[in-house]
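The data layer described in this paper is built around a simple, fixed record for each protein. We quote a single record here, exactly as it is kept in our systems:
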Amino acid sequence: MLKNVRIGVVCLARETYDFKAAAEIYARTMEELKEVPKVEWEFEPELIINTDEAYAAAERLSAKQLDGLVIITGTFHLGHLALILKRLLNKPVLLWAFSELPYNGGKIRLNSVCGVNLNASNLYKAGFNDYICIVGDKIDTDWIDAIRMKAALESAHIGIVGYRAHGFFNLDIDEMQNFAQTGILIDHYEISDILSMQVLPEDKELFLKEISDGFNCSDISDDQKDKVAALCVKFEKFMKNHALTALAVRCWPEFANMYGISPCAAMSILQSKGYILGCEGDIEGVMSMLACDAVGERQTPFLADLSQVNFEENYALLWHCGVAPMNLWDGNCIRSLDTYFAGGRGVTAGFVMKSGRMNIMRIDSARGKTRLFVQGGTVVPMEKELTGTYAKVIFDKPVNEVLDTVTSTGVAHHLAMIYSDKLKAFKIFSKIMNYELIE
């Protein structure tokens, strides 16, 4: 779901340039920005020319709980202005230069690009990295998407049920370092906390109908189907009761023993409704899913393994045991619930995922640093030959290079996948979060 954000906008100028023309362009720009979906704009409607005006604007905007700040260079201006706004607001900044106007009597009228250069140099030398620069007549919507991602993490309430999966040491995180970077406090719950949730018959019936309508259930028993429906209710109620934005689940090895089935099918169903649920206690995995979801435009993220590679035909299989959101089904194969693992207690979703342009990304920490791995590709059609949920992907780079990048940098084996093309936005997000970019 596209994340709503609040962004401040100021326009800087100096009276030795054509500030009146800059004011006219700024007025048009404010009207155009109002057309951008899911953004609450906080405009400073008048040009900011001197330091007193910059301090006053910063004071007004500081009360607005901004997620980001657009500093437009209407004309070249005093170097103090952007520094004052950045210091007092301390939000990620888009430095925006208007296109230069036709010359008037041999005099440059705006000198806006030079103003952006000045601001970028000042911010960089002052130790700030969370800015990007653009020149032109339109805002960079990729920067807005990066702000959506950052805001999604900052407002997130993440829970973990149980712990990471047995032996998956690479999914551990430093919770305090993560808190310092994102503001996320992670709450811990036991599997029994989920299983003890009460289930009303009418709530379960709604999910039973959805399961029967949406899946071929010939491989599972009526009792297993009933357990899937009841678990959907338990997860949904638990997340609502605890106001959780996302939940990482230790889905094995204990879950099937404690409940009788694995949680995969229930997670597939709930994710198609917009809930962010991650496998195997992977906190950074669900953080990655949250970032994808923030720019998803109704596209559901999927936490996948880079499971198989075919060097000769240059493709990879992004697979997981059967937890992909059911709405990502290709619409052609039989969408089933299967019991192929955990001694027949797996109860997982089974289908080929739809074709289309996709990106993968992962927020991933290692050796005291947080990194962001990104890659683009295309999901292509394939026959249903396996159990689980999976997509056949041709990456923008040769698959052997993608695999080498993942393994040589130690990126964890879960990747968030989204049907969209947000590579530039992911890279901007990496910069404003001060994450090391891996691509």
